[in-house]
Request: fold
Amino acid sequence: MAKDVVMIIRKTETVMAMLLVLLLVVSSQAVEVQEDQPIAAPVKEYLNFEQIIETAKKRVYPALVFVKPIREEFGSGEKKRAEIFGSGVIISPDGLVVTNNHVAEKAIEINCVLYNKEQVKAEIVGLDKETDLALLRLKLDEDAEPLPFSEFADSDLVSEGQFVMALGAPFGFDRSISLGIIMNAGRFLGFGSLYRYNTWLQTDAVINPGNSGGPLVNTEGKIVGINTLGVTIGGLGFSIPSNVVKDIVHRLERDGKVIRAWTGLRLQALKDFNSNTFIEGDTGVLVAGVEDNSPAEYAGLQAGDVLLTVGDIEYLGKYVEQLPSLYWRLADLPADQKVDITYRRSGRVRRTTLSPFLKEKFEGADFDCRRWNMTVKEISKFINPDLYFHRPEGGLFVQAVRYPGNAAKAGIRRNDIILRLGDTLGDMQQMDALAAIQKAYQRIISDKNREKKVLIEILRDGLPQLIVLDYRKDYDEED
Reply:
């Protein structure tokens, strides 16, 4: 072996040759030491890995879409139009596109750039804020050729350590790809009111702003998830599993929305390491709380009960990762139909019946009181539970105030609940719906003869206050 090496070095006398010889020597030694464990196959797989990635990329790249919505925003205290950037993926030859809800919501116009650099308009088929998914349809010509599209993989088969690629258009740039592995195939992020219906695929494939809505694909070029959340520090990314996406897409295409039931139950795992709460047992799920005036309250359920069965289905909620499937089942219960419940309280099994309500609008609508320099929004029991506590019958709150502006100058603040509005105490009208303030605002602003002041009663931190809003100054004219 040594003589052969010397001969090769003398003939070639190049650095590349010496590196090649060194590789041959190391390989031959490995074979001599462990003849029963050849390394030929692993080396071959390693050398072909780039080809595997390239093949997967070619399968999904043509289906990648650069999404450019123009939407109305109210968060600065006035209605503004802004173009944002996101990503999406075509999932059918006739132009169905999956993206994130936070990319498409409030959009008044959506343009999509396809793989061939062609820009096509799209319309919203349906939105679902609670899973952060949206379904679009490209507006294609009748004689358009079928589009390249991507297929879904079975996300239940995804496991830690598998290679994945995150595709998208980060920061509004052209298409890009990042490579990583699955760090956790069932990460629970649903401690808040959102994101409670699924666990997440956690990956170290970089998900930058603008990647939202793009596909996370496996080495076969099939979609295992939709990229949604990215954490800059630590390089963590989170994607919605493909099986969840398929289910939501089916519902959005069929109904234009996701129809859910509401029970008013808040669930907690029997062994909850986040709050250090540990309940004995392997079956059931802890009732962490019950909403006021909810079906669960009417059924007699209380915080601390252990929910055992709903209908004829046993509930297993020992760990937090099991909670999303239970929330999903509760949301799929038929509204206004009784369902049998068994639960354990103080060591004793009890029975009751529960009739879920139909879960209506998840998020309230917005309105721009432009001359007053503030935007208002409907109170949602799901998005604004703290405000809903003070106004369970519904109402309006100040979403944002413009600085500088008339509302800010008068002392109106974000999250003030608007109770009444008028010229004097004697003629103040209840502001219990968006239509009420829209009508009052238009009437007041169109009256050219009135003094440009309005009396507003607000509720702040549970205490009512009267505020005189002087809107004589037109901040739009100064701009």
Observations:
- Residues 98 and 154 are 17 Å apart (CA to CA).
- The chain has a mean pLDDT of 85.
- Residues 260-359 form a domain with the Pdz3 Domain fold (CATH 2.30.42.10).
- The longest strand covers residues 176-187.
